[in-house]
What we know:
CATH architecture: 3-Layer(aba) Sandwich
CATH topology: RbsD-like fold
Strand content: 15-25%
Strand order of the largest sheet: 2-5-1-6-3-4
Order of helices and strands: HHEEHEHEHEEH
Distance between the termini: 79 Å
Helix content: 40-55%
Number of helices: 6
Shape: globular
CATH class: Alpha Beta
Largest sheet: 6 strands, mixed
Amino acid sequence: MNRPYFAVLCFVALWSGLPANAQSWQSHVKDELSLMGHRNWILIVDSAYPEQVGPGIETVETNADQLDVVRTVLTTMKSSIHVRPVIFLDAELPFVPDQTAPGISAYRTQLASIFHDYKVQSRLHQSLIDEVAKDGALYHVLILKTQLAVPYTSVFIHLDCNYWSADNERDLRAAMSSQAAQ
Length: 182
């Protein structure tokens, strides 16, 4: 066999065998976001977050700082015409003391700074995990695991439609109901 041809075959065989996670997590978020829509989730989680399983749930190890991942995801979403973030934090987060989780106060301050332009909602950690598990049976959930080792620091981003609001939907349903009543 011709040596250059053999070298090309070896390269193609090795390249095609690369794991899917060889793509950078930033590129993966950008690619996935273009496919995602309302009802999908993006989670940015600490290192101890459980690996959830389900037909629509995908976990990517970022090996990155959690706050950097949050910033990157939000920056990527800002240019989206089709989705906007609905942000949830663990309700437990404000109650985690610095004595048992050193640096948590500084983390909360930095997170508040990142979210200054967003409405942030709080829910119990387990209820968010349960909702993600339920939605992961029908919709895609992208979990971005980070190096953070501080409890109750998961950021849950539920995607909503950017060009159609809840008020638009309510008005549409009211118009449909009034039309049906006639």
